[in-house]
Amino acid sequence: MKIDILTLFPRMFDNILDESMLKIAQKKKKVTIKTHNLRDWTSDTHKTADDRPYGGGSGMVMKIEPICKALSTLLGKKRIREFAGKASTPKGISVILLTPSGKRFTQKTARKLSKLKHMILICGHYEGIDERVRLFVTEELSIGDYIMTGGEIPAMVIVDSVTRLIPGVLGDKRSLSRESFDDNLLEYPQYTRPKDFDGLKVPEVLLSGNHKAIDEWRKSESLKKTREIRGDLFRRTTKVK
Ligand SMILES: C[S@@+](CC[C@H](N)C(=O)[O-])C[C@H]1O[C@@H](n2cnc3c(N)ncnc32)[C@H](O)[C@@H]1O
């Protein structure tokens, strides 16, 4: 997969892209991730990428021109016109605007995006982005009901959770097989050595070697944990069944 990130703060991504799973995924050539400075597509000497809002109000708004020029460079001029006003995603390509007013990003969305060939993420900053940019994107995503300073951290959230789902990125396939949010359930509790830490013992069943009993225990703990912590998910699970 190819991932392009359009941002005014590309350096924010340096460390995260050069550590852990994201570093390995790039090294294994499962994903190519590039950050692009939107100021490279500005046309004045000051490299202005934002301006005052029409109608007044506080803060600055990111301009449409650098974003559309960047999309033209990445996708070709004709291509970005095809996206205008369309709700559906053209095959294999998604242009995603990070915005608190977007659709909530979930594990299901991450799975869908992990099948793309090309994903472009547009990070807003300041008071947000000129509304007309919405006409050039295929999706608008929010990472939750709170306001971040910019779209950079939300973009990192998406890049990380999508990349780990690309086949071949995680060595052990089982790591993905039973994780929180699959089937609307939270993951069962996990333990490692020592068996006894200051009287805090690992549940006996996990030491028993009885795989059937372990599976049953995990399933029931997963349901219990979901009911206790995420009643909304639990109700969805029990409704589906
Ligand atoms: C300070 S926010 C702008 C908030 C905007 N004035 C509003 O009230 O909706 C600046 C940028 O951060 C990003 N952002 C902030 N919160 C986000 C969230 N929960 N999910 C995705 N992106 C977010 C968006 O790209 C947004 O354009």
Fold blueprint:
Layout: E1 2-7, H1 14-17, H2 20-27, E2 32-37, E3 50-51, E4 61-62, H3 64-75, H4 77-83, E5 93-104, H5 107-113, E6 118-122, E7 139-142, H6 152-163, H7 174-177, E8 196-197, E9 200-201, H8 211-229, H9 231-240
Helix pairs in contact: 3-4, 8-9
S-adenosylmethionine binds next to strand 5.
Report on the architecture of this protein.
34% of the residues lie in helices and 17% in strands. With 241 residues, it is of the alpha/beta class. It folds into 2 domains: 2-163, SPOUT methyltransferase, trefoil knot domain (Alpha/beta knot, 3-Layer(aba) Sandwich), CATH 3.40.1280.10; 178-240, tRNA(m1g37)methyltransferase, domain 2 (Trp Operon Repressor, Chain A), CATH 1.10.1270.20. The strands form 3 sheets. Strands 2-1-6-5-7 form a 5-stranded parallel sheet, sandwiched between helices. It has a two-stranded antiparallel sheet with strand order 3-4. Strands 8-9 form a two-stranded antiparallel sheet. Helix 3 (64-75) packs across helix 4. The relative contact order is 0.14. The structure holds S-adenosylmethionine. Residues 98-101, 123-125, 127-129, 142-144, 146-151, 154 line the site of S-adenosylmethionine (SAM).
Main attributes of the structure:
241 residues, alpha/beta, Alpha/beta knot, Trp Operon Repressor, Chain A, 2 domains, two-stranded antiparallel ribbon, 9 helices, 9 strands, 17% strand, elongated, binds S-adenosylmethionine
Task: Provide a short characterization of the protein structure.
This protein has two domains: 2-163, Alpha/beta knot; 178-240, Orthogonal Bundle (Trp Operon Repressor, Chain A), CATH 1.10.1270. It is 34% helix and 17% strand. The chain contains nine helices and nine strands.
